[in-house]
Amino acid sequence: MTHHQVKITRETEQDLIDIGSYIARNESSERACILIDELERACLALATYPGRGHIPPEMNRIGIDLYRETHYQVYRIIYEISARDVFVYAVVDGRRDLQSFLERRLLRPKYR
Asked: Which domain holds residue 57?
């Protein structure tokens, strides 16, 4: 089985911090820690068979097929497969309107 190197961007790290802070404030610190651990595991699981995800519909509508997504509960994990690497660009709550967010985050020059 082929393994990829998963690389989580600084913006994605901030997404996880923001999600954790929100859950800690609105539910509990314990639940926040558990959720962040689970989201991190879901990201790292992309090391084996990252092609299992699908093109985000918001990107597909504008003809961009470079990015893929997978889900963990209501959260969307947005990533790109590049040779032997998987770059995770965002972890976001799938209940929000993501068209402009994804365009803003993914359609600008990337700094890895």
From this structure: 5-106
